[in-house]
UniProtKB/TrEMBL annotation:
The keyword Flavoprotein does not apply. Keywords: 2Fe-2S, Electron transport, Iron, Iron-sulfur, Metal-binding, Transport. It comes from Streptomyces cremeus. This is Bacterioferritin-associated ferredoxin. It holds the Pfam family Fer2_BFD. The keyword Iron applies. Belongs to the Bfd family. The lineage of its organism: Bacteria, Bacillati, Actinomycetota, Actinomycetes, Kitasatosporales. Residues 3-50 form the BFD-like [2Fe-2S]-binding domain. PANTHER family: BACTERIOFERRITIN-ASSOCIATED FERREDOXIN.
Length: 81
C-alpha cells in the first residue's frame, strides 16, 4: 500500500528502512522524502514505526554512546556546553 502518494513510498519500504535502523519519521524522511511535502503521511509513518524497539534508543538508554557517536544527529556533550 502507498503510504506517501507524493513520492510513491510504500509501507514495505518504510518497514524495510525501520528494520535497517530508522526509528523516527525524520529518519524515514531523510532516506525516502516521505512526509516532507504535504505531510499527510506522517501519522501513518508513525503508526508503522510504532513504539517498538529502536536499536539506537536502546543504546542511548544503556548509555553506550560510543555506538551512536558517529551519528550526525548526536551532539557531543562537550560541544553543547
Amino acid at each position: 500500500m502507498f503510504v506517501c502518494s507524493c513520492f510513491g513510498v510504500t509501507d514495505q519500504q518504510i518497514k524495510a528502512h525501520a528494520a535497517a535502523g530508522a526509528c523516527t519519521p525524520r529518519q524515514i524522511a531523510s532516506v525516502t522524502k516521505a512526509g516532507t511535502d504535504c505531510g499527510n503521511c506522517v501519522r501513518t509513518i508513525q503508526g508503522l514505526l510504532g513504539r517498538g524497539a529502536c536499536p539506537r534508543r536502546e543504546l542511548i538508554a544503556r548509555h553506550d554512546l560510543s555506538a551512536v557517536a558517529d551519528q550526525p544527529e548526536t551532539i557531543a556533550l562537550d560541544e553543547a556546553a
